[in-house]
Amino acid sequence: MCIPKSNHKKLVDDCYPAPKALATSGPEYRPNSNELGRLTYYCENKPAKLTKVGRVLETRAQTDARSAQGSGPAADKGKAGLMITLGVTKNLLTECKSHYNYFIKPAQAIIASALEAALPTPARPRDLELSARAASCFYALASFIDPATTAVDADFSKLLKSFAAMSVERPAGADATLGEDTEQRNRTRLIGLGALAGAVGSDAIYAASSTTLIPTIVPGLAENIKDNRVTLDWLQSEARKASEGEPSYAEFNIAKKPLAIRRTRSITAHVAGEKGPSAEDVVSAAIGTLRGLLRHGDAIQVQAVVQNVIAWLDGKAAIAIPAPSDGRQLRSQWENTDWCCWLAQALCSWTALQYRFVVLNTLVEHLVENCEGQATTKHLSLIEMSRSILTGQLSLIGLSTSDTLSNLAALAVRRVYKDTRDSLLPPLVDCISGLGTHVYYADQINDIAEEIAGRIAALQMPDAAANADSASINAGRVGSTTRGTGQGQAQALNVHIHRQRMANAGPEQRDEAIRVLLFCLMGVLHATHKSSGEIHKAVDVNGSGAGASGATSDEEKKGKAAAGSEGKLGLARAGTRNRVSLSSLLSTANLIASSNHAVRLAYAQTLITLFRDELDREQLAQDTAVFGAATVEDKVNDAISFVHALAAAVHVMCLSKNLTVPAAMLSNLRDSPLETLPQLERINADPGRPGSLNSDGVAAGSGASAESMAALPVDYVAVSQALEQLIGALPCTSALALTPMLAALDKDAGSRLVVDGAASASGGLENQRRIGSRMVVARVLERLGGVFDVPTITKSAQGIIGQIPPFGVEPGPSPVQGLTLPPEIVPFSAVDGINSAGQSSNSSSPMLNASSIVDGLASSKKLQTATKLDANTLKRFLERDWNVNIAVDEAFAGSSPFSNASLPTSSHPSRRPSYVPVNGGGGNSMINGMPNASVEAVSVAGRKSMQVHTTGVNDLREALAASSPTSASGGGGAGSRYLNGLSQDAGSARSPTSAGGLSSADVAERRASRRESRRAGGPGGLSTLGINGSGNTSAVAILDTLKVGVAEDAPQLGPDSTLKLLQGQQAAPAVQPPYAS
Fold first, then answer.
1. Which residue has better confidence, 743 or 686?
2. Average pLDDT rounded to a whole number, residues 547-562
3. What is the DSSP annotation of 919-963?
4. Packing angle between helix 765-787 and helix 713-729, nearest 10 degrees?
5. What is the maximum span of the chain, computed from C-alpha positions, in angstroms?
6. Sign of the torsion angle spanned by Cα atoms 759, 762, 763, 766
7. pLDDT at residue 232 above 60?
8. What radius of gyration, in Å, describes the C-alpha atoms of the chain?
9. Where is this region: Disordered (predicted)?
10. Please, which residues have CB within 8 angstroms of residue 579's CB and are 6 or more apart in sequence?
11. H or E element, residue 575
12. Is the Cβ–Cβ distance between 1007 and 932 less than 8 Å?
């Protein structure tokens, strides 16, 4: 009896061979081609019929799958039917790709039935033919899914997970004692990788709603690129081939094309008589698929890939990774640091150029969030992975170097506060140093130096703990994306632990953190110096013009092309970078006078590196100047602030008997660590002041540890090296800023570092430090004299150098690469040459003539030509008053002979803290050791605590007269004013009999011109009347009209620096001097 069939069912049944021939249709298991063509034509013209056709195929597949799981002829017949059903399904998926909504559900069910039937059983291994046909069908399904019209549901994810599990399967051999069947394993994994390749080529993976599929794909790919079956060299070679789009196993090479012209691949099982796939084929297939996933992904997908690679390394993959069946223990890949570094570089090279930075950001973010507790191999591998990316040949266009530096520097500080000898600190320093390898914008290196200098300054301020705490807490939040609840809880725990650690930290942790940051800066400068210094920008390599050719040149030269030859972006040159500006490091100059000997040495090494390799050098001869380069005037104005501060710090370091700043003084810092320099100078220079280093209340230390609290032999040599390098780079700036300090250092070394008469003539640290200080002066002056062709200075300096015994540390420290342990302390007591040098009768006298030094430099034709200043102008600036107090103010004001003002105006208050200069040495004129007006105003003999007198109205009158362009009275220098030590009255007469060409009135005028008021408004409403006079009336005349104050003289001041009022007269409010507010 003939039972009628529906048309779609008849078309489906006709695709199968006759029932008797079905079992023998292998090994091809192909449907009848003519009938399959009619079925396809029918479904293309009637898309709605696909639902019914799919339902018929699904029912038949489920029946055949149950039969195939059995044994005997029924199983063979069921397998044949299932194979043909899969063939029909794949053909419909390929030809009816525009109507997936009708057919995707039954197609996924058919593939799932085939995978279930192919599963291995105790009686037989996995059926590779069924698995391969199912993988081919899935490849077609994934390739033609359009996320805009077809949703990816849980069934698709389940299929993907099944093939991912197949890609890491470890099939057991027939003999369990022999372990895995290597050939079966390679075949099985290659089939699973083929299906994953189809998913990677699918548009569904890159849809915004399908990011949940990446965690399923990545572990299977990562598990197959380990180096347990291939060598690391082979992996590196294969990664380069994959980057060029030509992996060794190219069967699954992914090239996304429009849906209309996209083609599917047939994944086949083992062919009889052929040798099975090798381990290299499996690894190459996995590398090609992972490369395709990264090359076609955007920033979100790339981040998801890297995050899931990290999860796989942690053993937290989304799919289960089976353990070896031969009893071997799974080794964490974190322990294989070299392989991890290769993987990080490979991930970057396979990623599109504009998204490479995401790889580094994700690694650094994970490191910062999870680097707590004891150092582990995971922490080390993450750091080395980041370092390998930063120092590799690949450019990371779009990388935020500031955020990366902030994260890594905060982590370094965190680790220091946990353990000052933490094993992660050296690799962290190397990693941060890698930021100088590639330059992405002109001021990148300068910004890095400024960021590190800012962190160092913050660590020295009173709220250093709070600053470091905040920096470490917020470091991981920069550039971060959404995190899970577990990560948020871990972050909160890390914050709590770090706050407790900061609360219990002391100076040792702070000093070591500063030293680590200094090594980071030194490493960045080293890396930058080795690089080309060229800035790279992204360009369209498919375009025309210089951009494309420039990108091609870079590809050939440095291998910095985009990932893959079909990439749209390449690199082109965009100029050269700017050099580091010394003004960026102004807040760190005080470190040369740090109480920690390791910090002092590290800072000196950093300065040597900076001055030698980085600074934009001043050109002394006009004919050698680079066209368009900055003038000497611009360079001097940019760098002189730092050199002023460095000069003050060198003076303090050389002469101080103890460089420790009391905690009470540290708590008074307001704006900058430079404020500690005047305080150190004061407590070391005043022998009678209560609480000073020489007073009875302060216990003197002994031994090498006590000596390390002040300058050591290596410090004097290192400072000399640094200043010599500075002169070589910035000779004009050095001459203008350092000359007064050198004269003051020579003089003060003789007056302050003198051995008492009761002491041995050849003993005492004072004698040794005096020799060290004068060695610094002589070496620096010798270099200055040589640079500016002043033979008198060179000869005088060489004469002093010849009298100085060796320090035992020559030629001095050299900059190092990478973080090293603090050096051993070599005290003066261990240097035989200095200990044997006695103290002569003229040790207390200056070794050099300051006037001849000033005259020699001022008359130098090289200096005059380079600065375009005449000899008189240079001389007036070089012979200006100098002390640590003035130098700090000059540093903040940027005092130079080219600027308009030497010190900050009243609207810019001084950065120095409240203190009173002592010993009178701060204001001494350097000319022949002649004391200035402040010394003449007070009696030094018998004073236990020295203070300057309180300034009266006459002093204010003089100051206003000196700074006013018009004067109401003549006398006292009212017709001239001084700015930066330069006389604005060219006709002012100088007495030839005065010391150094200056009269006592000139010296007094100069001091008056340098005073600044800390008050916003002057007395008597001067702020409203104007200090320059109103209606042809000067400020001095206004004071006279108002009859403010009484005439006062310095001799009327008592030892306590208070004004003795004349009997029967009312005292006017005193005006505080600039250094006593």
1. 743
2. 41
3. TTGGG---GGG---HHHHTS--TT-SS--PPPB-HHHHHHHHHHH
4. 10
5. 145
6. positive
7. yes
8. 40
9. 545-568, 897-916, 961-1027
10. 445, 446, 614, 615, 616
11. strand 569-576
12. yes
Write b or e for each residue in 59-96: b if 16 or more Cβ atoms lie within 10 A of its Cβ, otherwise e: ebbbebbbbbbeeeeebbbbbbbbbbbbbbbbbbbbbb
| Residue found under tokens 């690949």 | 394
pLDDT class of 595 with cuts at 50, 70, 90:
very high
Name the pLDDT band for 968 (thresholds 50, 70, 90): very low
Residue 756 burial (CB count, 10 A): 8
Q: What's the pLDDT score for residue 918?
A: 36
Contact 750, 810 (CB under 8 A): no
Q: Which of 100, 104, 58, 106 is nearest to 82 (CA)?
A: 58
pLDDT at 471: 44
3 state SS for 54-100? HHHHHHHHHHHHHHHCCCCHHHHHHHHHHHHHHHHHHHHHHHCHHHH
SS3 breakdown of the chain: % helix, strand, coil, rounded to 5? 60, 5, 40
The more confident residue out of 985 and 334 is 334
Which residues is 1071 bridged to in the sheet?
Answer: 951
Q: Is the dihedral of CA 443, 447, 450, 452 positive or negative?
A: negative
Mapping DSSP to helix (H, G, I), strand (E, B) and coil, where does residue 572 land?
strand
- Give the predicted TM-score (pTM) of the model: 0.78
What percent of the chain stands above pLDDT 70?
A: 68
Alpha carbon distance 216, 196 (integer Å): 9
DSSP state of 250: -
Residue 431 exposed, middle or buried by CB count within 10 Å (0-12, 13-18, 19+): buried
| Residue whose token pair is 């050098």 | 617
Q: What is the mean pLDDT of the chain?
A: 77
Q: What is the predicted pLDDT for the residue at 923?
A: 39
DSSP β-bridge partners for residue 983: 978
- DSSP codes joined into one string, 752-770: HS---TTS-TT--HHHHHH
401 close to 357: Cβ distance less than 8 angstroms: no
How many residues are listed for the chain in this entry? 1077
Token pair 């004097």 in the structure block, residue: 716
Phi, psi of 923, deg, nearest 5: -105, 10
SS3 136: helix
Residue 753 — pLDDT band, cuts 50, 70, 90? confident
Instruction: Give the residue from 240, 244, 264 showing the smallest Cα distance to 252.
Output: 264
Number of H helices, E strands in the chain: 42, 4
Q: Please report how many Cα atoms fall inside a 13 Å half-sphere around the Cα of residue 849, on the Cβ side.
A: 12
Task: Note the pLDDT tens digit of each residue in 599-635.
Answer: 999 999 999 999 999 998 888 875 444 555 678 899 9
DSSP 423-492: TTHHHHHHHHHGGGSSB-STTHHHHHHHHHHHHHHHHHSTTHHHHHHHHHHHHTTTT-----HHHHHHHH
Cis before 1051? omega within 30: no
345 vs 359: CA distance, rounded Å: 9
Mean pLDDT, residues 459-486: 51
Model pLDDT, residue 897: 92
Beta bridge partners of 576: 534
Among candidates 126, 247, 111, which has minimal Cα distance to 189?
126
The Cα–Cα gap between 289 and 214 comes to 12
> pLDDT tens across 315-360, in order?
999 999 888 876 667 788 999 999 999 999 999 999 999 999 999 9
Distance CA 681, CA 918 (A): 9
For the ranges 641-650, 790-799, 817-826, the lowest mean pLDDT is seen at 817-826
**Rounded average pLDDT over 269-278:** 70
